Each structure stands twice: as structure tokens, then as C-alpha cells.
Amino acid sequence: MLAISRTGWLVVAITVVLFGSGALFAADAGASSPDPVEFDDTVQVGLSLEDQYALEEDVRLPRAQVFYSKYSYVVGYQGVERFVDDHQQTTHTERFGYPLAVYVSDYSAVDVELREDGYPVADENPPWIDAETAWFVTGGDARSPAGETVLAFADRDDATAFADRSGGEVHTWDDVLESDFEIDDAEVVRDRLDDRLAEADDTGTQAESLRDRPVSTVVGEDAETIQDAVDDAPANTTVVVPEGRYEEQIELDKPLTLAGEGDVTIAGPGWGTVVTATADRTAVTGLEITGVGDETSGVDGVPDHAPEERGDGWDDELTTHYTGGDAGIAITEGADSLVADVTIRTPSTGVLLHDSPETVVRNVTVEGNEVSSDGRAGINAIYSAAVIEDSTIRDGRDGIYTHESQEIVIRNNTLDGNRLGVHLMHTSDAVVAGNEFREQDTTGIYVMTGPERIAIVENTIRDTEVGIIPDSDDAYVASNIVEGNDVGIRQNTAASLIEHNVIAGNIVGVEERSVLPTNRIVHNDFVGNYDHVRSSGGPLRIWSHDGVGNYWQGATMLSSIGEHPPSYSPTDTVDERLHLTDGTAMIARAPALQAASGLEGMVPGLRTGAVTDSTPACEPNNPDLLERTAWAEQAWTCAQ
Q1: Residue 549 falls within a domain, yes or no?
Q2: Which domain holds residue 100?
Q3: What are phi and psi of 571, to 5 degrees?
Q4: Which DSSP state fits 104?
Q5: Where is the Carbohydrate-binding/sugar hydrolysis domain (predicted)?
Q6: Region 512-528: what's the mean pLDDT?
Q7: Which partner from 3, 122, 382, 556 sits 20 to 30 angstroms from 154, CA to CA?
């Protein structure tokens, strides 16, 4: 059973409030049990925008909507199993309170069938039913983009008939609440990280083998021009370009390795793309490329993000916009390719990958425009699950830009003076690891359009307007140094794990904007920020878990010598100044303020928009990372 019975439900009246560009319903304690609302008016979690956009019109995925005793908005879960997994988390009740009402999609009211891929289809959306009165089919063939899913039925016979067809079992709501479901959450992203990096190593090894092809043609000996040598060379061989300057545009339409030997420059005419490849297993190595055209897009006026409603052909038009401009090297439909040891000077794009998965871009230098708002991207990956590594990108509009390049790995690159460093659009399951960002105009790492399962680890972001914007559900943000920025992390994720980061010397360490208090933020170090945290309106956010919190410069002033400090709130008017102003520690220990703080902790309505850490650490959690910043000496301990 739910923790609060139907007869014990609080009164909930529904009022509409504005949030961003859409209307959300806020639950307010008051009368009888609430009626379900439109799903679009809930705070949603559990499915990326890209997965939702990709669904065909007749797909009717199971949903749940939940009213909570301590949470202002109605939460919409894309999948009953997602609610159950969240409900079982140890701090769920602490953050949300008790479920006052849970409604689920009723498939007894529609004619539902499963497609070959397991997606449920029906002529119309199923209506809502109280979860406590429903019958659920689990363990069968039903699937959503996130994996196994659970269907609910008002009638037990309907549930039994569906289970007979789909191979599942029929359960009550109490049974479902005790069930275990495999959810690809942030902990799974963390646990898979080593494997993901090892897979990238394997992809790199395969790409490097393209350097070992036998030489078939040498420019200047066997052919007069590079293009003549390419045309004459058999597939799966190497065309060698000796030292010199070549004023050409090259097209590779078969699997070849184009290898510069010595100081080789290919100079285009100042318009168009210089090297174009349209074959799998193409390699371009050892070149400097200049004379790239300045056309940055193929379609004028198309935005850099998806509109809320996509019409027919929208993605084709957007792809043309991204891929239709000029580039130093463009690989289209060229899977398993390699671009390595190349320098490109470009007013538009450096390397363009379009529909070219498993391609490796390694040790590439891209020099863009002095005005970073011009141009396109140093490396532009469209539908390309590539490995981009060990490269340097300067003065680009976007250093590395991706669109629908799921599972891309971006690691160990240096991005300097771009508008945006790494810009992920509609790209789930990406890994951004070990990169160094310096002086980006606006943002170091910007994750947009609501993807899922992004890993942002071991990066260093300095001297930028905003260090990281991880706008992704189930993200894993860990072991990053975020130093000297206007805002270190602009936090707008859901169900994410943010741990072991050093956030130092920023004007604002974390700008907290998340509406769902579902993130686990622990083991981080906050030192030398003017404001450790600034929080927008919304729920109380608790940044501790299972007795583990974060280190806060200033929180140690609340402790007795050698003892752990009490609860600390970086958004409290007194606590937030402890690391900046003499005398605030004495004020903070005043009995009246301590009593008020305790009352606020018990009554969530008094702490709206607040962040609190109930178990702050006595000393930094990540001393080795902190020593790499200018702020290590500011990290006071309880003993001090």
C-alpha cells in the first residue's frame, strides 16, 4: 500500500502556475483527492525529448502522474516502472513527501497491441485510472525507448488476456511497488563509464589500422595531382602526398588513405569544402588545410534547436542546415574512418562528420575566426557516434558540436576561446571526459534539448561565463574542476548524480534551477566562490545522501573543534556569508537562528527554493583536484 491511505489523503486543489514557457499544475494542500491533469501540464521525467519526438503517432506509452504531500507540482513519469524505481529510493519521501494520489494509463479503455519492437499502439491515448485499483502486466514483451515497461488495466480479465498475448504476469499495485526494474539511471552511467572508454580505445585501434594500407600511388611520381592519384589508386590502398603546397579540392569516393609526408599543405580556392569523402574506411592524415569557403550552413534561418512541434521534413531541413556549409574535411556516410594529425584554418567548419559512425578524429588542430560568433564548428558531428580526442580547437563558434550523435565520446581535447566549447544537441549517452576548456565566451559544456545518460567527467573548465550546463536526465557529472567562471554549474538536470567535483573561485558555484528535487549532489568541494549556490524558486533541495554531504568553505565555522558541522544551507542568508565575513559564525550559532533553522528544516514550505546539506564534510573530499586550483589554502577544516 501507499504510505498514506485513501482515507488519509490531504486535500489538494489544483492551481495553474507558469513555469518557463508552459503551464504546470501546482498541488496545494486543502480538500479531497485530486483529479488527474493533462500530462503536458506535469513536470515530466523518464524519456528524452529526442525519444519522444521519434515516436510514431499511434504509439501510446504507459505513463503515471503523482501528487505528493511535500512537492508543489504534479510529477509525470514516462513509465510506471520509473515511478516505482524513484519511490524505492531512500531519500524519496524526504524530498517529495508521501504520494497523495497516483494515476496510471488505463489500457482497458483502448484496443492495445504490441508492435514488433514491443511498443504499445492504440487508436487513442488511454485515460487515467487510480493505480490502487488497477491490474498491472509486468515482465512481458512490452517496451518503451527506455526498455521494459508496465501496462495497467482497470479490468483484471483484460490484464490477463494481454499477459497471455505478451508473455507477462498480472500483479496488483502493492506487488508492483515491491518489484525491481532495470532503469538506466545515473549510477548505471557511472558503472558503465570504464567500458565506454575501453570501447572508444578499440574504435581508435581499428581506425589506426587504416594507416597501414599499402602505398599504391605517390603524387608527383605516379600522378600529377592529388585528385589524379586518388582516381588512379585501387581501393584500400594509400595515396602518399609528398611535402609541398597543393592548390586543389579533393574528392574521395572509395576507401583510401590520403597521407601527407612531411610539411604538406592543401590550399582550397576559398570557396567550398577542401577534402570531401563519401566512402567507409577513409583516412586523411598528416596535412595542413587552408582556403576553406566561408559558407556556414546549407539552409538560412533554421534555428539551432528543435521547435516544440516538429513538422514533416523538419529534421531533413535541419540536417541540411548543419551539413550544407563548407568545411576543411567533410566525411559523409563514411563509417569507420580516421582524421588524424591534421591542421585546418577555416572561417566555417573544420571537420564535418555526417552519418559517419565509429569515425575517429585524433590530434587535429582547428583554427577558427578571431570573432568566435562567426564560423560554424571546429568539429561538427551529425548522426555520427564518433571518437573525438587529443585535438585542439580555437576561436570557433562552437568548438565541438553534435546533433543526434548518440554514444559519441569526446575526450582529452583542448578548447580555447570558442563561443561554446562542447555543444550537445539531441545527443544521449555521450561521454565528455578529460577535456580542458579555457576562456569560452559563453559556456564550456552545454547539454541541450533534454537528452539522457550524459557522462561529464574529469574536465577542467576555467574563465568562462558558465562552466557546465548539464541539461540532461540521468546525467553523471563527476571529478571536474570548475574554476574562475561567472557560474560554475548551471544545474537544471533531473535524476542525475553530481559528485566529486571541485567548484572553486567562481562568482556563483552552482546556479540551482532544477524543478524536480531528484538529483544526488554529494562529495563535491565548494571553495572560494562568492556565492556557493544561488537557487531559483522551487522545492527544497537536499544535497546529502546516506550520511554523506559536500565540503563547504565556511560550514566548518559552525562546528566545535574536531566535530562535524551541523546542517548547512548555502542559500541561507547567514550561512551563505560564513566564508566571506568575519563574525557570521557567531551570529549563526545564536540560539534563535538555530531554532528557526530547525523549524525550516521540518516545514518544507518555509524553505522554498532552498538548498540544504544535512551532513557537510569537515575537510575537502577531493584534495588532489583542489590542489590543482588556486584555492586549496582557503579550504578550512573543522580542526581550524
Answers
A1: no
A2: 6-183
A3: -105, 0
A4: E
A5: 241-403
A6: 93
A7: 3
The grid coordinates listed for 341 are: 594529425
Determine, yes or no, domain membership for 255: no
Q: Is 632 helix (H, G, I), strand (E, B) or coil?
A: helix
Q: Which amino acid is at 623?
A: P
SS3 track for 591-616: HHHHHHHHHHHHCHHHHCCCEEECCC
Q: Over the chain, what is the mean pLDDT?
A: 87
Phi, psi of 209 (to 5 degrees): -65, -20
**pLDDT tens digits, residue range 303-344?**
444 444 444 455 677 778 778 899 999 999 999 999 999 999
Q: How far apart are CA 46 and CA 156, in angstroms?
A: 27
Query: Grid cell 602505398 — which residue?
Result: 215
Quote the strand ranges of 291-369, DSSP E. 327-332, 338-345, 349-354, 360-367
Which is nearest to 254 in space by CA: 230, 279, 233? Answer: 279
- C-alpha grid cell, residue 272: 567550398
Number of domains within the chain: 1
Sign of CA dihedral 413, 414, 416, 420: positive
pLDDT tens digits, one per residue of 178-207: 999 888 889 999 999 999 999 999 999 999
User: What is the three-class DSSP state of 267?
Assistant: strand
* Contacts of 569 by beta carbon, 8 Å cutoff, 6+ apart: 575, 576, 597, 607, 610, 611, 612, 613
Q: Which amino acid is at 15?
A: T
In a domain, 575, yes or no: no
Contact 130, 103 (CB under 8 A): yes
**Mean pLDDT calculated for residue range 589-598:** 43
Instruction: Choose among 395, 393, 400: nearest CA to 366.
Output: 393
pLDDT digits (tens, 9 = 90+) for 18-48: 333 333 444 444 446 899 999 999 998 888 7
- Assigned domain for 416 exists: no
